[in-house]
UniProtKB/TrEMBL annotation:
Residues 221-241 are annotated as: Disordered. Residues 225-241 have a biased composition (Basic and acidic residues). It comes from the Bacteria. Residues 3-196 form the DUF2344 domain. It comes from Lentzea flaviverrucosa. This is Radical SAM-linked protein. InterPro entries: DUF2344. Signal peptide: none annotated.
């Protein structure tokens, strides 16, 4: 049996798709591509596909991970090509490596997020971020199926900084004329999970920052934090083995 580790994206309208639907779409694409999948045993065999830290519904991602087990050798380069043809626009396989041992989940303990806040001046956002980082604790309310719970966001946030809007900004002159604060933040994967909307709620709590339109969040990377607070590519060990 061969195990393959894939990095894929979730872009455009698919950010509103649930993880369950993404998983079903992926498994259908594997069947259409003729991938010789390994199956579990028992009365209801299912493909051996393991998902790692799926992004929440409503956000985009450039760095989602899944492990796929096959019963025959598959060339990772060839698999990437046939899968991209079988998958819908928005799900793109950007990397595939053969697993060389170890546990992929243990190589991921944080995510880097890009959060775009249209209608918010970068200076206003930077002031709010400064107040947030200076705090030892920032609690926000989260609505769960069991009622409202309080969540301390601050310990999970490793870093946060404000970037200027890119000069291309989708080549839209109208978009460039509007203020847009861009927050880049690295967040530890703790329990319960701290999501981008929790970070935005924390900025509202500490600085009364309320974007006039919904923010757009994209996960840019996942990995293990090194000694300098940077993320290490979780597939790097497989490439080096």
């Amino acid at each position: 049996m061969q195990k393959l580790r894939l990095r894929y994206t979730k872009r455009g309208r698919l950010r509103f798709t649930s993880h369950r639907d993404i998983a079903r779409t992926f498994e259908r694409a594997l069947r259409r591509a003729g991938v010789p999948m390994a199956y579990s045993q028992g009365f209801s065999p299912h493909p051996k596909v393991s998902w790692v830290g799926a992004a929440p519904t409503g956000v985009a991602s450039e760095a989602e991970y899944v492990e796929v087990s096959v019963v025959e050798f598959v060339d990772p380069v060839a698999l990437r090509a046939v899968l991209d043809e079988a998958l819908p626009p928005g799900i793109d396989v950007v990397d595939i490596v053969q697993a060389r041992g170890g546990n992929l989940t243990e190589r991921i303990d944080a995510s880097e997020w890009r959060i775009e806040l249209d209608g918010v001046e970068p200076d206003e956002l930077a002031k709010a971020v400064s107040v947030f980082l200076a705090a030892e604790s920032v609690e926000v309310e989260r609505l769960t199926k069991n009622g409202t719970k309080m969540l301390d966001v601050r310990p999970a946030v490793v870093s946060a900084l404000v970037e200027p809007r890119s000069s291309d900004a989708g080549h839209d002159d109208t978009a460039l004329s509007r203020p847009c604060g861009i927050l880049m933040t690295v967040v530890r994967q703790v329990t319960p999970t701290v999501r981008p909307d929790d970070v935005l709620n924390a900025l509202r709590v500490v600085a009364d920052l309320v974007p006039p339109v919904p923010a757009r969040a994209t996960r840019m990377a996942q990995g293990r934090l090194d000694g300098e607070g940077r993320l290490v590519d979780p597939l790097q060990q497989d490439r080096e083995s």
